[in-house]
Amino acid sequence: MLSVRLERPNDFEEWRGKARRLLIAGMKPSQVVWRVGSEESGLFEAGDDMLPNTDGPIGSVPRQFIELAGDVIQHSDPQRFALLYHLLWRLQDDRRILDNAADGVNSLLTRMASGVHRDAHKMKAFVRFRAVHQNGDERYIAWFEPEHFTLESTAPFFTRRFAGMHWGIITPYASALWDKENLHFGPGGSKKDIPTEDAVEDDWRTYYGAIFNPARLKVAMMKSEMPVKYWRNLPEADRIAPLIRNARQMEQDMIARATTQPPARHMRQKARVIEEESQPIQSLADAAVAIDNCRRCPLYEHATQAVFGEGPKAAEVMFVGEQPGDQEDLAGRPFVGPAGQVFDDAIKNAGIDRSRLYVTNAVKHFKFIPRGKRRIHQKPNAGEIQACRFWLNLEREFVKPRIVVALGATAAQSLVGKAVSISRMRGQPIDLADGSVLYITNHPSYLLRIPDPETKARERQKFQEDLALIHTHMQRLEKS
């Protein structure tokens, strides 16, 4: 029996090199035992130093196998090396094995690859950084316990998402360190190497409490998406038990706070006939006053009031949403409802200061249909979007933002002048005629409407990555 030793538990190129040498030596899978690191060899096992060296190609395999093996090698099952070599040996005679879903080894390896993908997703979702101050510098450290050896393949995600900060992720088997320029890997550690708590912990608790929806609580599904084994490392986990315990009362409170028709005195506004823009508009303040008399489309007839933008008069960044919602219509301010809370949390997580932003909507009046005492949101049509471009163009003219962010398809249509695909345009800076740069992403309300937890987490991640690009652009402007 030949003992083949690997130095690392998840180095695909190392395993690939040994497997090629085994093939050229004609070693059958039944003649090979795989060992990792300092794992002891059996009494009757010979070392692999007898294998021939080769750098050239040995046989051939489909690209599909290379991709599969690159995933499976990260699995924690000690039989993964033997299973991969067993499949590799058989592929030399039959390249169609990978197309046979009923093949036992092929099926097992496919499930192992899926397990690795899930583990990487959980790392992206459940890593929680804590601040560490060293010599006046702020660094962030996180402890995570993956099921498999997925740190090396997942760490590049964090370099893209947190490119502007020093961070480290410590796992029991390895660590990853990012110095804002280079990614380094080192030995593993233990949880005691990580600070016990910092100020960011409260942000996570607040965020989790804000997005918790008691009306959609399904404990079994929640535990499936957020396995209990991860709870001990999640600061928000201490909120789970009381939130579940109080879910019924919270649901009743939500029903009691359901959206209602505005007061009658506001509804009587539709009977007033006021000449639109009776005074010339020469400033942002003038526009904020004049919009109360807007009759450019019929939406004013039933809305409580026009909702103008707010923020610094010379903000470098302008965020444009679709239209006011129920709560914005009553308050007369943009982004104060549930979508506004998601927006506030997301920009905070991206490191963007809300007080530096000008936030507004493409359409200034709330469009809805009454349903009992509730008002149900309706999407503005092309004519209403076009009519309200007058006010959005005034805001852009007076604020003169250098970056404009379209939140959703309605905002993008208003700014670009035609319908666009968010999936194709997001992440791409678009030069506008006035010299500003446009970014397009989803509206926060879209994230609230996604029922599937995994899809919701994936879309929130994309939204957060879009905001990170915008933050990076803001930082470049500050330096220029």
Describe the structure.
The protein has helices spanning 12-25, 63-72, 80-91, 104-126, 151-161, 200-211, 219-225, 240-245, 247-256, 264-267, 284-290, 326-331, 338-349, 382-399, 409-416, 422-425, 444-449, 453-479, and strands spanning 2-6, 32-36, 130-134, 137-143, 166-170, 174-178, 183-187, 317-321, 357-361, 368-371, 374-377, 403-407, 430-431, 437-441. It is α/β, with parallel strands linked by helices and 480 residues long. The protein folds into four domains: 2-122, no CATH class; 128-193, Roll (Diaminopimelate Epimerase, Chain A, domain 1); 205-256, no CATH class; 264-479, 3-Layer(aba) Sandwich (Uracil-DNA Glycosylase, subunit E). Strands 3-4-5-6-7 form a five-stranded mixed β-sheet, covered by helices on one side. Strands 9-8-12-14-13 form a five-stranded mixed β-sheet, sandwiched between helices. Strand 3 (130-134) and strand 4 (137-143) form a beta hairpin. Helix 2 (63-72) packs across helix 4 and helix 14 crosses helix 15 (409-416). The radius of gyration is 29 Å and the shape is elongated. The model is unreliable at 267-278 (pLDDT under 50).
